[in-house]
Amino acid sequence: MSDVLDRVAVLSDIHGVLPALEAVLAEPDVAAADRVVVTGDITAGPQPAEVLDLLAREGERVVWVAGNADRELVELRRGRRTEIPDPIGPYAASRLRDEQVDFLAELPLTVTLPVRGLGDVLFCHATPRNDEEVVLVDSPLTRWADVWEKLPDTIGTVVCGHTHMPYVRLAHGRQVVNPGSVGMPYGRPGAHWCLLGPGVDLRRTHFDIPSAITRLTRESAYEDIAEWADYFLNARAGDAEVLEVFGRMEGRGAASEGE
Prior knowledge:
5-stranded mixed beta sheet; 10 helices; alpha/beta; about 260 residues
């Protein structure tokens, strides 16, 4: 795609939460965007097939990127693994139609698009080289240098998801953007996303969370759906708590307070 895009909406980590996705797609700036980039972990949640169907109705406006949770559902369905660490994963895998499994299996790890004011923007789920690698807002610059090692010099902005918390920072002259999570936010409730072009605008869509929980409990057959929906839609996991956990995953004793 060679044409420069004026506005790109980025939705990450929807995790099968249809009411949150519906609320974001109804935002005027999302409806008017040239493209809607979905940066992975689309389906591992209570309504995976419904979320894919809704995004598919947006047609070629949607640009898809694979996430580690989507990959795990595909691997489970195709017999390449016997379990998924996320308790809702096996349920989500069982709800996907065969053609949806095939579709997810073909999604790319990264996509690069030209965006007005930002130049070439690389979209990925976790990092450009790995769909489950953890980098954080306070990751040291040495860590980012390692992540950027094979990235072309033409890429000035990288958009990633995976950690479910929004931020914007610079790392070795490159702008890093995490839009946060549409369906499983950490730190504060709401459906988080971002708008690119000519700058970076982190957004949060408010929606009726009690009604969404009631709807999910009614429409999803996942046995623990009421507890799951209450925990994730109300963002019961605080940002400090989650940063500590992810910091250990990144190799630190605890998430640092700065560089």
